[in-house]
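User: Predict the full complex structure for these chains.
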Amino acid sequence: MSTTVVEPWAEEPLLRYVAQSGARLVVVMTPSGQVLAQHGFARAVDLMAAAALGAAIMAASGALAQQLGERAFGALFHAGQRHGIHLAPCATPRGPLVVLTVFGKETSIGLVELFHEEFAAALHRAAPAEAVRAPVLAADFEADLNRSLTSLFRR
Amino acid sequence: MSDALQQSLDRLARVRGMRGSMWVAAEDGLTVAQLLMEGVRGKAVAALAASLARKVSGTAGAVGAGTVRFVQMETASGTLLVAPAPPDLLIVALADPQVNIGLARLEMLRAVRAVAR
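Assistant: Here is the predicted structure of the two-chain assembly.
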Protein backbone atom coordinates (compact mmCIF):
# COMPACT_ATOMS: atom_id res chain seq x y z
CA MET A 1 0.00 0.00 0.00
CA SER A 2 1.32 3.42 -0.90
CA THR A 3 1.58 6.44 1.33
CA THR A 4 2.15 9.77 -0.36
CA VAL A 5 2.23 13.30 0.94
CA VAL A 6 2.02 16.79 -0.46
CA GLU A 7 3.41 18.27 2.76
CA PRO A 8 6.41 16.29 4.08
CA TRP A 9 5.79 17.05 7.78
CA ALA A 10 2.65 14.89 7.61
CA GLU A 11 4.43 11.74 6.44
CA GLU A 12 5.95 10.34 9.62
CA PRO A 13 2.80 10.80 11.76
CA LEU A 14 0.71 9.28 8.96
CA LEU A 15 2.95 6.21 8.60
CA ARG A 16 2.80 5.60 12.35
CA TYR A 17 -0.99 6.05 12.44
CA VAL A 18 -1.50 3.57 9.60
CA ALA A 19 0.79 1.01 11.24
CA GLN A 20 -0.83 1.34 14.66
CA SER A 21 -4.49 1.59 13.69
CA GLY A 22 -4.49 -0.97 10.88
CA ALA A 23 -6.37 1.49 8.66
CA ARG A 24 -6.83 0.60 5.01
CA LEU A 25 -7.30 4.12 3.66
CA VAL A 26 -6.44 7.48 5.23
CA VAL A 27 -6.80 10.99 3.85
CA VAL A 28 -5.48 14.09 5.62
CA MET A 29 -7.08 17.17 4.11
CA THR A 30 -8.11 20.71 4.74
CA PRO A 31 -11.79 21.43 5.51
CA SER A 32 -12.17 22.46 1.87
CA GLY A 33 -11.01 19.03 0.66
CA GLN A 34 -7.45 19.86 -0.37
CA VAL A 35 -5.42 16.69 0.22
CA LEU A 36 -2.19 16.98 2.24
CA ALA A 37 -1.40 13.28 2.58
CA GLN A 38 -2.96 9.92 1.81
CA HIS A 39 -2.50 6.24 2.37
CA GLY A 40 -3.93 3.35 0.39
CA PHE A 41 -5.42 5.05 -2.65
CA ALA A 42 -4.27 3.80 -6.04
CA ARG A 43 -6.23 6.18 -8.24
CA ALA A 44 -6.38 9.96 -8.09
CA VAL A 45 -10.06 10.00 -8.95
CA ASP A 46 -10.92 7.84 -5.92
CA LEU A 47 -8.84 10.02 -3.64
CA MET A 48 -10.35 13.25 -4.88
CA ALA A 49 -13.86 11.84 -4.57
CA ALA A 50 -13.20 10.63 -1.00
CA ALA A 51 -11.68 13.99 -0.03
CA ALA A 52 -14.54 15.98 -1.54
CA LEU A 53 -17.18 13.79 0.12
CA GLY A 54 -15.37 13.80 3.46
CA ALA A 55 -15.07 17.58 3.41
CA ALA A 56 -18.73 17.87 2.48
CA ILE A 57 -19.80 15.61 5.36
CA MET A 58 -17.73 17.66 7.81
CA ALA A 59 -19.21 20.89 6.49
CA ALA A 60 -22.76 19.53 6.65
CA SER A 61 -22.34 18.13 10.16
CA GLY A 62 -20.73 21.41 11.26
CA ALA A 63 -23.72 23.34 9.97
CA LEU A 64 -26.06 20.90 11.73
CA ALA A 65 -24.11 21.36 14.96
CA GLN A 66 -24.56 25.13 14.71
CA GLN A 67 -28.29 24.65 14.17
CA LEU A 68 -28.37 22.70 17.43
CA GLY A 69 -26.34 25.32 19.25
CA GLU A 70 -23.20 23.19 19.37
CA ARG A 71 -19.84 24.75 18.54
CA ALA A 72 -18.90 21.68 16.50
CA PHE A 73 -19.34 17.93 16.43
CA GLY A 74 -16.48 15.64 17.27
CA ALA A 75 -15.72 12.52 15.30
CA LEU A 76 -18.20 10.83 13.00
CA PHE A 77 -18.25 7.05 12.74
CA HIS A 78 -20.11 4.92 10.24
CA ALA A 79 -20.17 1.15 10.70
CA GLY A 80 -20.62 -0.70 7.44
CA GLN A 81 -20.86 -4.43 6.75
CA ARG A 82 -17.24 -4.76 5.67
CA HIS A 83 -15.73 -1.34 6.38
CA GLY A 84 -15.96 1.35 9.01
CA ILE A 85 -15.45 5.04 8.32
CA HIS A 86 -14.06 7.47 10.88
CA LEU A 87 -14.07 11.16 10.09
CA ALA A 88 -12.66 13.63 12.59
CA PRO A 89 -11.30 17.15 12.76
CA CYS A 90 -7.78 17.90 13.90
CA ALA A 91 -6.49 21.31 15.00
CA THR A 92 -2.95 22.22 13.94
CA PRO A 93 -0.87 25.42 13.82
CA ARG A 94 -1.32 25.23 10.06
CA GLY A 95 -5.06 25.48 10.53
CA PRO A 96 -7.86 22.97 11.00
CA LEU A 97 -7.49 19.65 9.18
CA VAL A 98 -9.81 16.70 8.62
CA VAL A 99 -8.75 13.05 8.80
CA LEU A 100 -10.80 10.43 6.96
CA THR A 101 -10.01 6.83 7.93
CA VAL A 102 -11.46 3.70 6.33
CA PHE A 103 -10.84 0.45 8.17
CA GLY A 104 -11.81 -3.18 7.88
CA LYS A 105 -12.67 -6.03 10.23
CA GLU A 106 -9.00 -6.63 11.06
CA THR A 107 -9.10 -3.62 13.40
CA SER A 108 -11.83 -1.84 15.37
CA ILE A 109 -13.30 1.59 15.89
CA GLY A 110 -11.81 1.53 19.40
CA LEU A 111 -8.28 1.16 18.04
CA VAL A 112 -8.87 3.72 15.30
CA GLU A 113 -10.21 6.27 17.80
CA LEU A 114 -7.38 5.57 20.22
CA PHE A 115 -4.64 6.04 17.62
CA HIS A 116 -6.43 8.92 15.93
CA GLU A 117 -5.97 10.90 19.14
CA GLU A 118 -2.22 10.24 19.01
CA PHE A 119 -2.17 11.02 15.28
CA ALA A 120 -3.92 14.35 15.83
CA ALA A 121 -1.42 15.23 18.55
CA ALA A 122 1.50 14.24 16.29
CA LEU A 123 0.15 16.33 13.41
CA HIS A 124 -0.23 19.26 15.78
CA ARG A 125 3.40 18.94 16.85
CA ALA A 126 4.71 18.47 13.32
CA ALA A 127 2.68 21.08 11.46
CA PRO A 128 4.39 24.39 10.71
CA ALA A 129 2.53 27.60 11.49
CA GLU A 130 0.10 28.58 8.80
CA ALA A 131 1.66 30.74 6.12
CA VAL A 132 -0.17 33.85 5.00
CA ARG A 133 -2.30 32.60 2.15
CA ALA A 134 -3.16 34.40 -1.00
CA PRO A 135 -6.85 34.31 -1.85
CA VAL A 136 -7.90 31.20 -3.76
CA LEU A 137 -8.52 32.20 -7.35
CA ALA A 138 -10.41 30.13 -9.84
CA ALA A 139 -7.55 30.62 -12.27
CA ASP A 140 -5.11 28.98 -9.81
CA PHE A 141 -7.39 26.16 -8.74
CA GLU A 142 -6.63 23.75 -11.56
CA ALA A 143 -2.90 24.37 -11.32
CA ASP A 144 -3.01 23.76 -7.54
CA LEU A 145 -5.04 20.61 -8.00
CA ASN A 146 -2.68 19.28 -10.65
CA ARG A 147 0.32 20.05 -8.44
CA SER A 148 -1.23 18.11 -5.56
CA LEU A 149 -2.11 15.15 -7.79
CA THR A 150 1.41 15.11 -9.18
CA SER A 151 2.84 15.03 -5.66
CA LEU A 152 0.45 12.33 -4.50
CA PHE A 153 0.63 10.03 -7.49
CA ARG A 154 3.97 11.05 -9.01
CA ARG A 155 2.50 11.50 -12.44
CA MET B 1 -28.90 -4.71 31.76
CA SER B 2 -26.61 -1.78 32.55
CA ASP B 3 -27.32 -2.24 36.26
CA ALA B 4 -26.24 -5.88 36.01
CA LEU B 5 -23.04 -4.86 34.23
CA GLN B 6 -22.24 -2.22 36.84
CA GLN B 7 -22.99 -4.59 39.74
CA SER B 8 -20.57 -7.16 38.34
CA LEU B 9 -17.86 -4.49 38.16
CA ASP B 10 -18.61 -3.50 41.76
CA ARG B 11 -18.11 -7.12 42.86
CA LEU B 12 -14.87 -7.38 40.92
CA ALA B 13 -13.60 -4.15 42.50
CA ARG B 14 -13.75 -5.84 45.91
CA VAL B 15 -10.99 -8.24 44.90
CA ARG B 16 -7.80 -6.99 46.53
CA GLY B 17 -5.27 -5.62 44.05
CA MET B 18 -7.83 -4.81 41.35
CA ARG B 19 -7.05 -1.53 39.53
CA GLY B 20 -10.11 -1.50 37.37
CA SER B 21 -12.49 -3.47 35.28
CA MET B 22 -14.75 -2.83 32.32
CA TRP B 23 -17.23 -4.31 29.93
CA VAL B 24 -16.11 -3.82 26.36
CA ALA B 25 -17.91 -4.26 23.05
CA ALA B 26 -15.95 -7.18 21.59
CA GLU B 27 -16.10 -6.13 17.96
CA ASP B 28 -15.73 -2.37 18.42
CA GLY B 29 -13.26 -2.19 21.31
CA LEU B 30 -15.37 0.52 22.93
CA THR B 31 -16.20 0.70 26.64
CA VAL B 32 -19.74 -0.26 27.65
CA ALA B 33 -19.33 0.12 31.42
CA GLN B 34 -16.25 0.73 33.53
CA LEU B 35 -15.00 1.09 37.08
CA LEU B 36 -11.38 2.25 37.02
CA MET B 37 -8.86 3.69 39.43
CA GLU B 38 -7.61 7.14 38.57
CA GLY B 39 -4.86 7.12 35.97
CA VAL B 40 -6.00 4.00 34.12
CA ARG B 41 -6.53 4.83 30.44
CA GLY B 42 -9.85 3.13 29.94
CA LYS B 43 -10.17 3.89 26.25
CA ALA B 44 -6.75 2.41 25.50
CA VAL B 45 -7.33 -0.66 27.68
CA ALA B 46 -10.70 -1.33 26.03
CA ALA B 47 -9.40 -1.01 22.47
CA LEU B 48 -6.23 -3.03 23.05
CA ALA B 49 -7.90 -5.74 25.15
CA ALA B 50 -10.53 -6.27 22.44
CA SER B 51 -7.76 -6.51 19.86
CA LEU B 52 -5.88 -8.99 22.04
CA ALA B 53 -9.01 -11.09 22.55
CA ARG B 54 -9.68 -11.16 18.82
CA LYS B 55 -6.12 -12.29 18.06
CA VAL B 56 -6.12 -14.93 20.78
CA SER B 57 -9.47 -16.26 19.53
CA GLY B 58 -8.12 -16.34 16.00
CA THR B 59 -5.03 -18.24 17.15
CA ALA B 60 -7.10 -20.70 19.18
CA GLY B 61 -9.31 -21.29 16.17
CA ALA B 62 -6.33 -21.78 13.89
CA VAL B 63 -4.79 -24.46 16.10
CA GLY B 64 -8.12 -26.14 16.76
CA ALA B 65 -8.14 -25.26 20.44
CA GLY B 66 -11.79 -24.24 20.45
CA THR B 67 -13.46 -21.28 22.09
CA VAL B 68 -11.39 -19.02 24.33
CA ARG B 69 -12.91 -18.68 27.79
CA PHE B 70 -10.25 -16.73 29.66
CA VAL B 71 -7.09 -14.81 28.80
CA GLN B 72 -4.46 -13.96 31.39
CA MET B 73 -1.48 -11.76 30.56
CA GLU B 74 1.10 -11.09 33.25
CA THR B 75 3.67 -8.34 33.02
CA ALA B 76 6.23 -7.01 35.46
CA SER B 77 3.90 -4.30 36.71
CA GLY B 78 0.48 -5.83 36.40
CA THR B 79 -1.95 -8.37 35.10
CA LEU B 80 -4.55 -8.11 32.36
CA LEU B 81 -7.47 -10.52 32.48
CA VAL B 82 -10.05 -10.90 29.72
CA ALA B 83 -13.11 -13.14 29.57
CA PRO B 84 -15.37 -13.18 26.50
CA ALA B 85 -19.10 -12.92 27.18
CA PRO B 86 -20.58 -14.10 23.88
CA PRO B 87 -21.88 -12.89 21.62
CA ASP B 88 -20.99 -9.22 21.98
CA LEU B 89 -19.08 -8.42 25.14
CA LEU B 90 -15.80 -8.91 26.96
CA ILE B 91 -15.13 -8.36 30.62
CA VAL B 92 -11.65 -6.92 31.13
CA ALA B 93 -9.79 -6.48 34.41
CA LEU B 94 -6.50 -4.77 35.24
CA ALA B 95 -4.81 -5.78 38.46
CA ASP B 96 -1.60 -5.59 40.45
CA PRO B 97 0.85 -8.49 40.03
CA GLN B 98 -0.05 -9.77 43.51
CA VAL B 99 -3.78 -10.06 42.79
CA ASN B 100 -5.51 -13.31 43.68
CA ILE B 101 -5.96 -14.52 40.11
CA GLY B 102 -8.22 -17.39 41.13
CA LEU B 103 -10.67 -15.10 42.87
CA ALA B 104 -10.60 -12.54 40.08
CA ARG B 105 -11.19 -15.27 37.51
CA LEU B 106 -14.08 -16.67 39.53
CA GLU B 107 -15.75 -13.26 39.73
CA MET B 108 -15.23 -12.58 36.04
CA LEU B 109 -16.68 -15.91 34.92
CA ARG B 110 -19.59 -15.42 37.33
CA ALA B 111 -20.20 -12.03 35.71
CA VAL B 112 -20.11 -13.60 32.25
CA ARG B 113 -22.71 -16.18 33.29
CA ALA B 114 -24.92 -13.50 34.86
CA VAL B 115 -24.87 -11.41 31.68
CA ALA B 116 -25.58 -14.46 29.52
CA ARG B 117 -28.81 -15.18 31.42
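The helical segments of chain B are 2-13, 42-62, 101-116.
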